[in-house]
Amino acid sequence: MSSGFKRGRDGSVITVFDAAEVAILRSLVSQILDLIEPGETGDDPLERALGIGPSEQSADPVLARLFPSAYEDAEQSAEFRRYTEATLRDGKRADAQTMLDSAEPGRVELTPEQAQAWMRALNDVRLALGTRLEVTEEVHDEIAEMAEDDPRYPAYVTYDWLTYLQDTLVRALW
Known about the structure:
Layout: E1 6-7, E2 13-17, H1 19-35, H2 45-50, H3 61-66, H4 74-102, E3 106-110, H5 112-133, H6 139-145, H7 153-173
Antiparallel strand pairs: 1-2, 2-3
Helix pairs in contact: 1-4, 4-5, 5-7
């Protein structure tokens, strides 16, 4: 298993992955890219130019978690979403693509900008997986008590590993 991220002397962030770890990361981030399609905009040319899109919150719990309501008031939240979600989707897709492009077996050295993109992309992958698994704060206790032949075990261990990677990346950046 990866030893996590470490800060390089020049401000870069370094880790070492084996082929299986890269395959997992690529699979998960590819699923995020598939899920977060480019932001939709209206038919009006000005709306397209400004990235103004639909205002409905997704019924998919993962998308609702990745793009939460900004306000408790549904009308205010819908208006905020209309002006921001397409751009947020584009940013999440760019971060995921950066991770996909730079994840490779062996030594991986990330620039500070790439490391920031990885941090955001790892967060999105963890949020998506955690939502699907209905992860609670007791996740570590659940994993410790879960039998290895439990069909949920690989997904929970993957979630735990992603948490570890994100933690070491945050520490390497700060």
